[in-house]
Amino acid sequence: MNKLWFLFLSLFLFAACDQPIKNNDQMKEVANIKATTVKSTITAIISQYGNANEDDVSRGVKHAASLWRNVDGSEDDFKSFCVRNFIADSNQKALTFEKISRNMEILKGHFNKISLELQRPLHEPMGETLQIDEAFGAYSAGAHMIEDMYHNKLAFTIALNYPYYKLKEKEKLGKEWTRQQWAYARLGDVFTARIPAEILQEVSAVSSASEMYIANYNIHMGHLTDGSGNQFFPEDMVLLSHWNLRDEIKSHYSKGEKGVESQAMVYEVMKRIVDQSIPKKVINNPQYDWDPVTNIVYQDGNAIEASPEGNERYQQIINNFHAMRAMDEYTPLNTAVKRAFAGGMEITQSDAEKLFVKFMSSKELKKVAELIKVRLGRDLKPWDIWYDGFKARSSINEESLNAITQKRYPNALAFDNDLENMLITLGFSKQKSKFLAERIDVDPAKGSGHAWGASMKGDVAHLRTRIPATGMDYKGYNIAVHEFGHNVEQTISLYDMDYYMLNGVPNTAFTEALAFIFQKRDLELLGINNENPQKEALQVLDNFWSTYEIMGVSLLDQRMWNWLYANPNATADQLAVAVQELAKEIWNEFYAPVFGIKDQPILAIYSHMINSPIYLSNYAFGHLIQFQVEQYLLTADFAKEVERLYRIGCITPNAWMQEGLKEDISINSIIKQAGMAVKEVS
Q: Can you give the pLDDT at residue 234?
């Protein structure tokens, strides 16, 4: 799902009205509450209710004052509002919170449903996509809701009584908080910024355009050729960049030298996409043959002129940057990077970078690389960052797996009908499996697929997956199981949560981690058991190598956004050069010493950089969290513990880890275990 939509929806919380909306359209909004007014307001409330609530009063008044503008009233109006609306009685505060939560679920749930329905023609194969479909898909029905909540004073009621806590404060105070206090704090996170509706609408429109750009970035693999006219892939194979291209590389590790040739061809395609020399004619178009090595396009066997795409890829990033940068002046976390990390992930970008750099500098990486070279019988190639040979499926021919999945899942309905059985196979009770399966719908997807959770009880989560006319191939099945993991988490953490404000998980890294846990059990769900005595060691190595790959991609994403903020007027052409240089710099620092190859741009291929801004680091943390959760689950009842972990809810990352696993997020365990696994497998 569009990640930005959740950012918008997270602001749509509500309290009781205080004043009617005034028409202040012609008035320029400026902050107008002085420190002296804040102080006198605090004094007035304390004199009325006593000193017992002094900290709550001070925090609430200061936060409300930071959001108040001249269009909301004078300083006297502000003081009067605060004195009149502060809730001193704990029982009354709890009752008010329950009513806010109920209303938030109603509104957030229906806005989510509206967005899902408007975007169906963009995400699902519903015939030709017209401009009108794109226009409705880009429309955000709730774009003005935030500002409405300020105009009718609902936002200030919430800010005053359920104030915002900074990340450091949550980490310190949260150790002693009850579940109710955590829920109050999450409500306090709602109105931390006052972003004009037109800016939110622009972000939504730009994001939707980027989603469409990526959703239609298909390569017709059956039309790849060389100078001799040879074909390398099935005629009907169509792969979406980057997901399917990456997974096609993974699928060829069991095919020996022939597999290397195919992998090399896919890598040439990737490089053409990164440097934007890919001919525009061959994108999502089966009418031409294309040699990605020479970059010659053929029609009816004859070479023809074909212009390159022209840095449209990087223009999409520029568009997202400017749309998101427009929000900066209205938020306390005044850059998109800060909002994504300290705000969304609740981990600072600098801390994330330090952790990634430390991991990618680990000496165990060279040991694992040497093991891979031995297993491959050759030197490493750049695309071996996606080496898939530690997985159980790596020894199984993908055609065999395709035959199984295509027969079992000829369409989306067949996969939908099997969800209950899949959950039972994983150890969930029949009653729980039925409950969850009934609240997840499977839809065919235009893109690679995604999970779109419900936001209110009574609604269902949606699993979108791409299924060709020949049935679900193994690549699609593997992705669908991942998305199924998302849906199970989304459903449990909504329906089984004690407080609605705590529904979900701390950040998207956690939902990715929990989806990975489902994904790695894909063969088990097909009835294929892995009896290898080195199974656990191989799983450790697979996670370790996958973490290495995604951390480099994530670091590039971070540094690209830092570069954009340092060069806010950059053009798409300038960004294209910068991204490729950054990709090669990161490669040369952390991958060249391991691979023995320099100046590779492969880290820049990920589509998330275009349609999911500043999202990739969630995958890196997701791998770390997955490893730690998997280690815990080795000696636990899988289904029972998964349900317990999903019910912890949306507290801070380290608080979640402590409550769930009794440890913080760390790279130490996975590095240590990888070293031990190399010795066991060698």
A: 94
593: three-class secondary structure by DSSP: helix
- Provide the H-helix boundaries in 388-501: 398-408, 412-417, 419-425, 430-437, 474-495
What is each CA distance from 176 to 170, 240, 517, 560, 648, in whole angstroms?
Answer: 10, 48, 30, 38, 15
**Which residues on neighbouring strands pair with residue 283, listed in sequence order?**
219
Which portions of the chain are predicted below pLDDT 70?
A: 1-27, 392-395
SS3 467: coil
Are 613 and 590 a contacting pair, CB within 8 Å?
no
Structure confidence at residue 2 (pLDDT): 37
**Dihedral sign computed on CA atoms, order 671, 674, 679, 680:** positive
Q: What's the whole-model pTM score?
A: 0.80
Residue 582 · residue 522 · CB < 8 Å: no
Q: Which of 616, 605, 553 is nearest to 241 (CA)?
A: 605
Amino acid at 457: K
The rounded distance, in Å, linking the Cα atoms of 392 and 535 is 8
Q: What pLDDT score was predicted for residue 397?
A: 79
Q: Is 156 exposed, middle or buried (0-12, 13-18, 19+ CB in 10 A)?
A: buried
129 DSSP 8-state letter: P
pLDDT on residue 16 = 30
Q: Is the peptide bond before 242 cis (omega within 30 degrees of 0)?
A: yes
User: Which burial class, exposed, middle or buried, applies to 590 when counting CB atoms under 10 A from its CB (0-12, 13-18, 19+)?
Assistant: buried
Report the distance separating Cα 94 and Cα 282, nearest Å: 60
How far apart, in whole angstroms, are the C-alpha atoms of residue 510 and residue 334?
A: 25
pLDDT score of 29: 80
